[in-house]
């Protein structure tokens, strides 16, 4: 069985467990293939936790959930040194960040020090405690969640820290048909328990798949289109005076890299060995929405980053 077929089956299996959230399932797999991290925003009860737990069931790796609260300390995430009286020495006790899949639940409820500790681990793939540095596992994915309903007493992530996330995914309520299917699945699980994962993917298969994704062909015209989108976000006034009035800062070079990796991963997941402009457009919202900073004027007019991205997609021509 080919790797593409294996990941295609994994995608189908996850979609059967996470009903009505096909985009979340797809973005989780893209993050896994692109070696990045995911920020997911949605109301409570939309299967955010269930999604990453289901992925963990299908992966050869361990999973840990961290509930972020205002009284959380950085050492609660990274671990700390503990004094051992019997030896007279300090031993490092690893924290929950030393797992393959980590769910940072309601990341905006913890203060900046805790957020920084997590984001350093995401960016550097290591933890520094005192004079020592501890590397994290090569297979390491963080899915952080935010609740858009309750914002009182929260600590919103600064734009520079948001840039650490490969994608910022917004999810909504499922359709009526999907809701019925969720109800039937929940009844069945309550009666018979959750069935074991039919598809298991090893860490070596994930790394092999990442190599395959990096070799997916991107024509020069598609690359030019990708670059044009990012560059237009930095100087949008050339395309459209209103865009220039709405946008304070555009996407960073990290956004360019993320757009490239996500478009390649999506193409590979869809069973192709080449990237199309539609792949770039498909992932553009999730890759760019947290990397654009709007002006006060735009916010006062009720504009959102998605409004700007939609206008960019309409204005930037696909290179022939």
TrEMBL record:
What the record says about family reads:
Belongs to the MoxR family.
Q: Which residues form the ATPase AAA-3 domain?
A: 37-167
- InterPro entries on file: ATPase_AAA-3, CbbQ/NirQ/NorQ/GpvN, ChlI/MoxR_AAA_lid, P-loop_NTPase
Pfam family membership, one = AAA_3
Q: What name does this protein carry? A: MoxR-like ATPase
Protein species of origin:
Marinobacter mobilis
Q: Which GO terms describe its molecular function?
A: ATP binding; ATP hydrolysis activity
The alphabetical list of record keywords is:
ATP-binding, Nucleotide-binding
Q: Which residues form the ChlI/MoxR AAA lid domain?
A: 247-311
Family annotation (CDD domains):
AAA
């Amino acid at each position: 069985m080919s790797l593409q077929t294996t990941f295609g089956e994994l995608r189908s299996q996850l979609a059967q467990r996470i009903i009505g959230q096909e985009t979340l399932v797809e973005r989780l797999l893209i993050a896994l293939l692109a070696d990045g991290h995911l920020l997911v925003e949605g109301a409570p009860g939309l299967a955010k936790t269930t999604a990453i737990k289901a992925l963990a069931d299908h992966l050869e790796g361990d999973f840990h959930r961290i509930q972020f609260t205002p009284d959380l300390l950085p050492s609660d995430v990274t671990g700390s040194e503990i004094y051992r009286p019997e030896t007279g020495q300090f031993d490092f006790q690893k924290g929950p960040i030393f797992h393959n899949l980590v769910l940072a639940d309601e990341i905006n409820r913890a203060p900046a020090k805790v957020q920084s500790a997590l984001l350093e681990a995401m960016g550097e793939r290591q933890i520094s405690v005192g004079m020592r540095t501890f590397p994290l596992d090569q297979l390491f994915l963080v899915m952080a969640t935010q609740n858009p309903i309750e914002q009182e007493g929260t600590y919103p992530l600064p734009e520079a820290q948001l840039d650490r996330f490969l994608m910022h995914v917004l999810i909504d309520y499922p359709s009526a048909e999907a809701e019925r299917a969720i109800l039937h699945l929940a009844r069945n699980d309550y009666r018979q328990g959750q069935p074991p994962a039919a598809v298991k993917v090893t860490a070596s298969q994930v790394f092999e798949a990442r190599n395959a994704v990096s070799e997916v062909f991107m024509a020069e015209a598609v690359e030019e289109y990708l670059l044009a989108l990012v560059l237009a976000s930095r100087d949008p006034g050339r395309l459209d005076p209103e865009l220039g009035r709405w946008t304070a800062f555009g996407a960073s070079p990290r956004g360019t890299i993320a757009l490239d990796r996500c478009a390649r991963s999506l193409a590979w997941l869809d069973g192709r060995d080449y990237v199309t402009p539609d792949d770039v457009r498909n992932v553009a919202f999730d890759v760019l929405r947290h990397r654009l900073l709007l002006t006060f004027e735009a916010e006062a007019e009720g504009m959102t980053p998605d409004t700007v991205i939609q206008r960019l997609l309409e204005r930037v021509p696909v290179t022939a």
